């Protein structure tokens, strides 16, 4: 069965003090508001509304935990960088995200969502530079790749790969499209490797070579958050 299928909602928390006791390895999903994080999670889970998709960026204000069949947890973090949110709320979200990423011992890796048309924004770079120092693996999904031509998608992939190469093999990159449902197997291979290492069975699956993560096709209407 696919890694993320049949994920079940477990709990939402609004502040660090509400974090549940660790009960399995956790894979966090983070990204700039409107980068396609919720749509990516729904596509991976094969569920239309597992994660909330809003036409208004910045609506997700909670950390949401979803239990996978393996016993691991998918952790959906609030989107960052939405300017229309009041400064007080932005600081609250930032504190919530930072507290989780810095202190959560059961966190084994981060999936970072970036819009393939606008990758490596200053906030994305800040997140990457900060999390890379944790020593945990990070996998970058370049979402909405269906909106680019095949050549343009391949060029973006190569550019992001080149920019992140100094961080070493713990940071991997691929193209992804929720609309076309392409890139799902690559994500499962990488995250499956993390879980294999954590659960102690088999050899970790090799990370998908970023240069080979399939370039996607034609442009299509906008997808959700």
- CATH C-level: Alpha Beta
Low-confidence stretches: 53-59, 202-225
| Number of β-strand runs | 7
| Sequence of strands across the biggest β-sheet | 1-3-4-2-5-6-7
Strand-residue fraction? 15-25%
Shape: globular
> What is the domain tally?
1
Radius of gyration: 16 Å
- Please name the CATH topology: Rossmann fold
Main structural class: alpha/beta
Write the CATH architecture name: 3-Layer(aba) Sandwich
The SSE order reads EEHEEHEHEHEH
State the end-to-end CA separation. 26 Å
Mean pLDDT: 83
By CATH, the superfamily comes out as P-loop containing nucleotide triphosphate hydrolases
Major beta-sheet overview: 7 strands, mixed
Q: What is the tally of helical segments? A: 5
Helical amount: 25-40%
Can you put this structure into words, describing what you see?
This protein is an alpha/beta fold and 225 residues long. The chain has one domain (8-199): P-loop containing nucleotide triphosphate hydrolases (Rossmann fold). Helices cover 30% and strands 18% of the residues. A seven-stranded mixed sheet has the order 1-3-4-2-5-6-7, sandwiched between helices. 44% of the residues are buried. Mean pLDDT is 83; it is low at 53-59 and 202-225.
List the main descriptive attributes of the protein structure presented here.
7-stranded mixed β-sheet, 5 helices, 18% strand, alpha/beta, 225 residues, Rossmann fold, single chain
Quick rundown:
The protein is of the alpha/beta class and 225 residues long.
Write the layout of secondary structure elements.
Elements: E1 8-13, E2 26-31, H1 37-45, E3 63-67, E4 73-76, H2 87-103, E5 107-115, H3 122-132, E6 138-143, H4 150-164, E7 171-175, H5 184-199
Parallel strand pairs: 2-4, 2-5, 5-6, 6-7
Antiparallel strand pairs: 1-3, 3-4
């Amino acid at each position: 069965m696919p890694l993320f299928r049949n994920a079940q909602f477990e709990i939402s928390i609004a502040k660090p003090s509400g974090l549940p006791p660790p009960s399995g390895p956790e894979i966090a999903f983070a990204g700039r508001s409107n980068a396609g994080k919720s749509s990516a999670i729904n596509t991976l889970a094969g569920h239309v509304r597992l994660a909330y998709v809003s036409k208004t960026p910045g609506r997700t204000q909670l950390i949401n935990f979803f239990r996978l069949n393996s016993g691991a947890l998918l952790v959906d973090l609030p989107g960052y960088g939405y300017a229309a949110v009041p400064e007080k709320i932005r600081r609250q979200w930032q504190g919530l995200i930072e507290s989780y990423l810095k202190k959560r011992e059961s966190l084994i890796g981060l999936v970072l969502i970036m819009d393939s048309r606008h990758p490596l924004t200053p906030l994305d770079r800040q997140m990457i530079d900060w999390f890379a120092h944790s020593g945990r693996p990070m996998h970058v999904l370049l979402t909405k790749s269906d909106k680019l031509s095949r050549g343009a998608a391949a060029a973006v992939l190569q550019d992001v790969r080149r920019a992140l190469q100094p961080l070493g093999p713990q940071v991997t990159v691929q193209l992804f499209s929720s609309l076309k449902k392409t890139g799902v197997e690559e994500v499962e291979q990488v995250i499956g490797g993390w879980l294999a290492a954590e659960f102690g069975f088999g050899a970790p699956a090799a990370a998908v070579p970023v240069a080979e993560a399939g370039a996607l096709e034609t442009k299509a209407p906008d997808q959700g958050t």
